[in-house]
């Protein structure tokens, strides 16, 4: 670091400031390199953190929200927290046919014998109706899906 300062001071003295400023900017600024973890930012001696906008920074203090390819929203400060995940597939589901309304049935009175007395077990209580049911088409099987966050795209701030 001491040698670096000496070189800058020498360039300021000899080359009249304009070249020294260019050299200083070239040494400090790293062009917008996208990152996914702090290892990608390790080569930059001033910006060591990989933040939620997938750029190297000095520190990560802004929480940003992103939506992955499966539609799940996640809010985080660092890029490491935006993980790629695998969603388990599902089996095929058969179609369900529609069922019409079944009307309720009234009670049936008991049958009378010759003497006018009811025969036991010959009566029936009222039966409730069964409501109609909508049908559903068959759903095909779905394989395993990878859900990942895009390094480009919209990042929003969380709702307070």
The helix-and-strand class reads: alpha+beta
Order of helices and strands: HHEEEEEE
Shape annotation? rod-shaped
Tally of helical segments: 2
- Portion of residues within helices: 10-25%
Low-confidence stretches: 19-31
- Measured between the Cα atoms of the first and last residue, the distance is 43 Å
Description of the molecule:
A two-stranded antiparallel sheet has the order 1-2. Residues 19-31 have low confidence and may be disordered. Among the domains are: 1-30; 32-89 and 146-160, no CATH class. Helix 1 (2-15) runs antiparallel to helix 2 (18-28). It contains 2 helices and 6 strands. Helix content is 16%, strand content 11%. The chain has 160 residues and is α+β, with helices and mostly antiparallel strands.
Can I get a quick summary?
The protein contains two helices and six strands. With 160 residues, it is an alpha+beta fold.
Features of this protein?
160 residues; alpha+beta; two-stranded antiparallel sheet; 2 helices; 16% helix
How are the elements arranged and paired?
Elements: H1 2-15, H2 18-28, E1 49-50, E2 56-57, E3 64-67, E4 73-76, E5 85-87, E6 145-147
Antiparallel strand pairs: 1-2, 3-4, 5-6
């Amino acid at each position: 670091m001491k040698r670096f300062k000496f070189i800058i001071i020498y360039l300021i003295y000899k080359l009249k400031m304009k070249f020294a400023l260019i050299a200083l900017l070239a040494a400090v600024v790293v062009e917008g390199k996208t990152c996914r973890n702090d290892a990608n930012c390790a080569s930059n001696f001033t910006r060591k953190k990989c933040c939620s906008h997938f750029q190297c920074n000095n520190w990560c203090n802004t929480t940003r929200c992103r939506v992955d390819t499966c539609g799940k929203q996640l809010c985080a400060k660092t890029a490491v927290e935006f993980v790629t995940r695998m969603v388990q597939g599902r089996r095929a589901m058969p179609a369900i046919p529609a069922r019409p309304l079944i009307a309720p049935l009234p009670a049936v009175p008991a049958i009378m014998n010759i003497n006018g007395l009811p025969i036991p077990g010959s009566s029936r209580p009222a039966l409730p109706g069964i409501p109609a049911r909508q049908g559903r088409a068959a759903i095909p099987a779905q394989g395993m899906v990878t859900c990942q966050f895009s390094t480009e795209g919209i990042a929003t701030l969380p709702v307070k």
